[in-house]
Write a structure and sequence with these properties.
about 160 residues, mainly alpha
Length: about 160
């Protein structure tokens, strides 16, 4: 939403830039409301390469890398990395981390799976790295997040 607002508020912008910003907005909505929305199947996402890449990332977040994604889209990894940053306004690594943490929050809130299982399910290799990233992003530990979510649902 912020990128869309930023691009739309510029004095000079192109239709292509606004399309890219809308694609990013829809991708973020898709990440958050995956079960309720069919954004991944929208024509806008499929018509623009960045939309296809973001959808691919959302569908394969568990085990993808920059290299495997670049290969899937027929790019050299170094070129793909700069191309992705230019079009998504975020690094590939950061976007993948956002997707994985969003899925972890969903699983913590909606399931009773043990945290270790969730860590493996969302594609983290190390428990300590997951906990560090989760706490930085959410301001609390995964168990605290789960407890808070349980209290929120009871109200």
């Amino acid at each position: 939403g912020q990128i869309l607002f930023f691009e739309a508020s510029k004095e000079f912008y192109t239709l292509k830039t606004v399309h890219a910003a809308c694609t990013l907005l829809f991708t973020n909505l898709h990440e958050i409301h995956r079960e309720r929305l069919l954004i991944g199947r929208s024509t806008m996402m499929m018509e623009h390469k960045i939309g296809r890449v973001l959808t691919f990332m959302s569908d394969h977040y568990r085990d993808i890398t920059l290299e495997s994604t670049a290969e899937a889209f027929h790019y050299h990894p170094a070129y793909f990395s700069s191309w992705f940053k230019k079009h998504a306004h975020i690094t590939f690594r950061r976007q993948l981390l956002k997707i994985r943490l969003e899925q972890a929050r969903f699983l913590l809130k909606e399931t009773t799976l043990p945290v270790q299982t969730i860590i493996e399910e969302v594609g983290f290799q190390e428990k300590s790295h997951f906990h560090r990233c989760f706490k930085k992003e959410c301001g609390m530990t995964p168990l605290a997040y789960r407890r808070q979510s349980d209290h929120t649902q009871d109200e």
